[in-house]
Amino acid sequence: MKHPPTPRRKTGRPLSFDRDAALEKAMLAFWEHGYETTSISDLTAAMGVTAPSIYTAFGDKKRLFLEAMRRYAGDPADLAAAFASASSARQAVAGMLENAARLYTGDATPRGCLLASATATGSKNAADVRDAVAQERRAIRAIIVRRIERDVAAGRLPPETAPPVLADLALAVTQGMSVLARDGADREALLAVARASMTAWPE
Amino acid sequence: MKHPPTPRRKTGRPLSFDRDAALEKAMLAFWEHGYETTSISDLTAAMGVTAPSIYTAFGDKKRLFLEAMRRYAGDPADLAAAFASASSARQAVAGMLENAARLYTGDATPRGCLLASATATGSKNAADVRDAVAQERRAIRAIIVRRIERDVAAGRLPPETAPPVLADLALAVTQGMSVLARDGADREALLAVARASMTAWPE
DNA sequence: CCTGTTTCATATCGAACGCTATGAAACAGC
DNA sequence: GCTGTTTCATAGCGTTCGATATGAAACAGG
């Protein structure tokens, strides 16, 4: 995972807060309350940083959110690597669903999924942010589709398998689990849903 | 479906707009842009009604949304009736998923699901509205669970069937399809996901 | 030390937010 | 036609929004 180059500091007064820690706090705030419905005032409280410092360190609210998302929502390259090294597409997707079930019900983070809920809807001003999040989801979908196609080509899955359908099913279950988690479903319920959805796979 | 009694008019200047039509326009605006991220200004434009008229006719933004949701998102009693008259739990859920797939990709309404996306996240000020929408989802879940339990009791489904798991799977797929639809998935893709998820059912 | 650079805390900015006060206009009943 | 009631359009209420101007404070280099 490659981070963008730390803004080159020439000289001057040193930063009085931990930039990475503040970014993580911002991410958690966006995760819990959504992009547009988290105000700058909410962010200053969560990050422990005043508004002008946020703007000099991260640009504006939009760039702060995008940086937080790209930093903590998981690099698609990491997912691609995990999928590539998995023993099968089935195992890879089952693992992804199980990880999601655990993540969405963990105590260290808000319930549900940042990518599924933070920009589920929004005003026209935030259309570009929604598009960026949707792009992230599409990247994940493409990775799943390719991994399934690989197993079909290798004869590990029946030739009549439709990779996009299985991928969309996995995505739908993932994002649906996010809503269930927000409604209070516990970890076992989500894990059961994840396992049940895998029985829809061939063989 | 029983509507709340129309506010009794004694006398006075008649309403200059169609209250039901305005309510539907408001619902569509909330559906597309979400509850908190649809402003009163957006609503006056969509409904063709000035702000004071909205407030005298519907109370405030919160009550306008709740009335729109309860009026158009489907009365749980209607769903319960459809489920009761269905030939089987499986058929009832398959029908629900197919209806959702068609609804989320229809041209007459925004993409996705009002109940899944309008209050996916939000500020603390709107916590009560989110709870009301979550309550609606829980009511739907209870109906599905009960219908599956009925089939298990009647021996139409294997005794080891876990009704809550199948119900949660159906809910997750439904709400996941909402995200897929918003990301641009077409009707056939959603119908395929709905059908694929049904192969997870026993027998 | 002094200069240059960057961040700091304070105090806002204009715009948009949800909402409402006000008085004229449009009806029903008498 | 007058009275009572309700809705109308206009204008603006106080608050919060995202974002900044300002000048003092904290460093590195010379």
Automatic annotation (TrEMBL), chains A, B:
PROSITE patterns: HTH_TETR_1, HTH_TETR_2. InterPro entries: DNA-bd_HTH_TetR-type_CS, Homeodomain-like_sf, HTH_TetR, Tet_transcr_reg_TetR-rel_C_sf, TetR_C. GO terms for molecular function: DNA binding. Residues 16-76 form the HTH tetR-type domain. Keywords: DNA-binding, Transcription, Transcription regulation. Residues 39-58 bind DNA. The keyword DNA-binding applies. This is TetR family transcriptional regulator. It comes from Aquisalinus flavus.
